[in-house]
Structure formats: structure tokens, C-alpha cells
Amino acid sequence: MTAPGSGSPGARVAEAIEQDERLDAAVQALSGPVQVLASVPGRDLLLGKPLGHALHPMMTDLPIGFWTSATVLDLLPVPGGRRASQRLIALGLMAAVPTALSGWAEWGQVKDPGSRRAGVVHAGANGAAAVLFAGSWLARRSGRHRSGVVLGGLGALAASAGGALGGHLAIGKKVGSTFTATASA
Predict the structure, then answer these.
(1) Which parts of the sequence belong to the DUF2231 domain (predicted)?
(2) 89-114 confidence digits (pLDDT tens)
(3) DSSP per residue over 127-175, as a string?
(4) Where are the domains of the chain?
């Protein structure tokens, strides 16, 4: 970790989150329910053991990709864009479920208190993104396209914040499963 006050603004925010002990109550509250994933039959898959590396970072491409594509369609006046955007948002919501499960499985393995705190904020930002995109989908379905676009834009901002913190965890903090391709279960 770099000295406080050094590095990029994003790194300073991530470091402040890691050091914020007020997040410990949320970490504690979520630790028990997340341990349920430790006993599910597909846990090794959620952790990425068959792949030899963490599944979660790869899975994030799906909701992010669907939601980003929907946002682009919202910005470009293309024929059929409204309907396609609504479908992409729905696909992103469906993809968010296994993505979140793989992320919670990873988080359950983390021991470092700072990374656990950052993981809770990462999940919160991504959860907010999913809620906003769900609201966007519902607004669009009920004929309130403009409201749907606004909610989708807010969802994209929340997903970007969550993604930045996720990148910090995966790359900066080296959080994630590290299985060799030949490791036995």
C-alpha cells in the first residue's frame, strides 16, 4: 500500500475505504450469510477452480457489457434502439446474479480486513447499479423511456464506481482465487 495522500485520487479513495473501520459492522453482518456459499456443491466453480483462476473478474464482463451497450444505444438514435436497449438491460440483470454469487464466494475467502471492507463497498455499488438498471427496465416497460434512460445512466455511474473498486481489489490488492491449472480439488 502506498503512503496516505499519494497515488491517484481513485487509489486514495480505495485506501480510505480500506481503512474505514465503520464498515466492519457491514463486513460482520455479511460474513455469516456468505459462508453459506462455502457449502454449496458448485462452490469450486464459483471460485474458478476448474479454470485455474478466479471466475468473478471474467463474469463481470457480462453485466458491464450488456449495460454499456444499452447506454450506447440510449445515446445513439438508431432504429429499434429503445427495444434493444431494454433487452440488453434485462440480459445484464440476469447476468448480474451469477456474477454476484461468484464475487461473494471470492469475498468469503478474503482474510485482509481492508480488502473485506473494500469488497463490501464494491458489492454495494454494484448492487445499487443493479437496482437502478432494474428501475430503468421497469420504467421502459411502462412507457417511461426518458426516466428509464436517466435511471440507466445512474446505474452506469454506480457500476463504474463498483468496477473501479473491483479493479483495485483484483489488480492492486491481488484478491481472487489463485489456482494452478493442474491443482487438485
Answers:
(1) 52-177
(2) 999 999 999 999 999 999 998 999 99
(3) HHHHHHHHHHHHHHHTT-HHHHHHHHHHHHHHHHHHHHHHHIIIIIS--
(4) 57-175
